[in-house]
């Protein structure tokens, strides 16, 4: 027993957690999350107890003089090779020795590359995870195996016991990940459009040679890669000499192309008959068309290595010296040859750690790749003119950030259509397009913009997503009818279902004493998703006859006004005379003024089967009540309450719009309370009632998807997006919805495929799984 404890103590002392400090408090938080084997001490505390600090971490090399003043070892944390656009820090490299961009001295990067082949062979058969116990992990570190090189042992000794930092990627997983990077064209500079497949077209099939330009650097920076300014011109001359008759192209970095910085080669290249690529396009798509690539030390040369191109290096960047490039400069320390999969695993999977910009938690490379893929098409697909009409202030602010690369103009309807026609643009409307508007637009693409499923479901103050229908964007109904959901889509939908259950409005549990034994409980969700001002008298549909919905689609329905909850209660009471009915009023209509919604919050709970509603909630004065009420009571009593049946007799000639709207709420409350055994609640749908059958009835409330997630029996009387696919009991029978879908497929279409999610704080597009975090959950 004692020997076992001694062994455990020896292991713990071997990998003592080091204490470090950093001036930048924000990066200090990143370090603590990404490197749990370290203890990050606040800088002011470190100044007081500097003898107990093991290292000082600088951010991108800044502040090293402070470490020299404190007489502490200097570590450096910098951005990874792949980054997201903007100022969001998402990939990090912590270097304890040297720098991967400085080839003059030994570095952790070189140790990592040497260790990678052995690690990949080990992890092919060994699964390392957070639950791995100390004994198994110690056995891995001490195993005497020819596959475990000295470098791999040294690399593993730096890792913590309780939380291994690197993921257990085997060589097969690395090949799969690298294949996705190449197929999806994920280059280091990826946030521009791809070049034409024939951009480097050469008549006669001549060899295509791409020379990579770089922005001017100081002589000190060039010394780090054993290069000089003369190296650039020498590179061009050698390329011309080695490839007579070839076609040469100069690829410039964005900073040089935009004129922000100067380069080395443009004038010299033109003098030597080299074509300069003047458009800002994806460097990855250019390198993919090249036969050979010449560079001094550009990072995008790493893209050419992953593409399997012949790369000539006139300096010593981090990817040179490992047998994958033809080098003009030799390095005795880089004395092993690796495969491109091993070099990729070293820099992207083992050497770099990733932090998710929205969740703020450690992430992995595959999730980081998905975020990169989201940015590219979204940022650059709409560079045309967009006339936005019928947008409110909240939508304007969100849309402006979301489409910052487009030429956006918020205008009135007539002006917007005219401007879109003159500029060959598009018209985006935030309201349901009418036939009149469609006729006015004619051939101009008309797109309906509306909040995404999460925004409509939870009615948050902060917008996180938008849906687009019309023009190049298919409607949700078409997506659900045609699209084949992949296994990845369904897996994401299953995870999303867990979020829905956690965020669900169906949280409450009721056990009504009034519910009789064996009596069914029917919950009616109010129809607040349709604004009453949009509904006309012709919106009453005839039972059993062919009708058209608001988008012109044929279906059959019953005879009920589309926005009258009182009629729906009476209809269900006739159909289910023995059931116990619970009415739930939902306020999801963002078009109703805020003060009216606040008033409704107080008013609706009083719409239970009672005779009186306090008029003080409506802002009525005693004078108004004494003049209009006819109950025969004193003015003081009249002010406190008035009979619901007297609401229609009140003189409204001197009322403001707020009071008139409140009267309409009262009229609905009056109609609803005429049905017996109806209990009215506000925004509290119920999950279950012990021992009773529970049903959810609604016109087309978005909370129906919440109920299906539980799952509960849902009856619809309108045209919700989740209705007509075989999961609900529908009064409407759609001729265009003849496909049977399960719940995950509907979620994948409505929450993953159609909406576009955007983090307005970090200014990046994100995934549906991130929406709850954006809401603050």
Automatic annotation (TrEMBL):
InterPro entries referenced in this protein's UniProt entry, alphabetically: Capsule_polysaccharide_synth
Name the record gives this protein: Capsular polysaccharide biosynthesis protein
Source organism (scientific name): Taurinivorans muris
Taxonomic lineage from the root: Bacteria, Pseudomonadati, Thermodesulfobacteriota, Desulfovibrionia, Desulfovibrionales
